[in-house]
Each structure stands twice: as C-alpha cells, then as structure tokens.
Design brief:
GO terms for molecular function: RNA binding; structural constituent of ribosome. Helices cover about 60% and strands about 0% of the residues. With about 220 residues, it is mostly helical.
Length: about 220
C-alpha cells in the first residue's frame, strides 16, 4: 500500500487518452445481413447454414468489401434499366461501368479519411483530383443532356457547382507587357506578309516563263 499522495501523483502522471471522433460514414446505411458482392448472386446461398451466411455477410466484411457493395448500389441508381450498360452516366468517358458512382464513392471515402487524418496531404491531393475530374465530366454531361445530368446529381446526391470564370488582376506592368507583345506580333505579321508576297511573285514569274517556253 502506498500513500494517498503517491496514488494521486500516479493518477496525475497517466497519459491522457483522446477520444476518437464519432464520424458518420456513408457506409452506415448498408444492412449487416447483406451478402458480399461476390456471393450475393450465387443460387447456393439460399441453402447454406446461417453461420456461413453471417461469415459471408457485411457484418464480417472489411471496408473495401463494403465499398464494393456501396458502389454497386450507386451504379444501380444511375442506370436507366437493368440491361443498360451503355448510357453515358453509367459508363463515363473512359468506357467504365459506374464511372460517376465509382468516383463519388471514392471521394466520400477519402473525405471521411481526411476528417480523421487531416494532415494526410497525399490523399487530400488525390481527392481534389477526383473532384476536379468528376466536375469536368458533369459539366460535359450538363451541356450534352441536362435531364440526365439532373437525374445523376439527384440520385448520387451531388451538389454541382460550375467553375468560376478566370479573372486577371490588371496592373500597369501587365498592360505594358501586353502592348509590347501585340506590337511584336504585328511586326512579325508584316514580315510574313512581305515574304508571302515575294514568294507569290516568284511563282507567277516561273509560271509565266513556263507558258512562254510552251508557246
């Protein structure tokens, strides 16, 4: 037995354990009894034991396997019909099934990861690249087929914001540089025009000489 002072000192010297943030995930709505993607469509699964079903369900699955099931659900949302694998919103520009669904699931997973690890610059860069790629593809879909674009954003719960127009801060140095570039361009165009006129006259002289020889 030790003195109360020593016990208090030991309790004070213990390291403080930080509580982890309870961050909601976009995979929380998946039911745990749902089977994994590789075993969901097998006919034998209807006759197997309950213990085997539990082992092959999402209750025992990793985050990667849950992400596959979630991506498949998003693909089914944007697909027009069960046999439609060729629509733009499903395939995407790279001819992949579920292009928008794959990007959306990946972006949301990276967002949750960055909430837990905000100093992970590599995954932050990857997430921004995927967001930019998805914005470009959605912008093209918006110009080509607005109804399909609206349905895709609604089904995948995407808030599309068009890119801001590029604006340059006009300074005196930039104006002088622009005027110099315009002047150089104009002088170069004059030199090219003189060379073209010289070449045209040479061609006309050759053609005239050829006609005189034939006569």
């Amino acid at each position: 037995a030790c003195s109360p002072v020593l016990q208090a000192a030991r309790g004070y010297a213990r390291p403080v354990t930080k509580k982890k943030k309870d961050i909601p995930s976009h995979l929380d709505d998946l039911p745990p009894t749902l089977l994994k993607k590789d075993y969901a469509n097998l006919p034998i699964m209807s006759s197997v034991d309950d213990v085997v079903k539990r082992l092959l369900s999402l209750e025992m699955a990793s985050q990667k396997e849950k992400l596959k099931v979630k991506t498949q659900q998003l693909v089914e949302k944007v697909r027009r019909s069960p046999s439609d694998n060729g629509s733009f919103e499903v395939q995407g520009k790279l001819k992949r099934e579920g292009y928008f669904a794959i990007l959306t699931a990946k972006i949301r997973t990276l967002e949750e990861h960055l909430q837990r690890h905000p100093k992970d610059t590599k995954n932050r860069r990857l997430m921004l690249m995927d967001v930019d790629r998805r914005r470009k593809m959605l912008g093209y879909l918006r110009r080509v087929n607005y109804s399909t674009f609206e349905n895709t954003c609604k089904q995948l719960e995407i808030h599309y914001s068009p890119p801001q127009p590029y604006t340059r801060h006009v300074t005196k140095r930039w104006l002088v540089k622009k005027a110099l570039c315009i002047k150089v361009f104009q002088e170069k165009q004059k030199l090219k025009a003189a060379e073209r006129l010289k070449q045209r006259r040479e061609w006309q002289a050759r053609a005239r000489a050829a006609r005189e020889q034939q006569e």
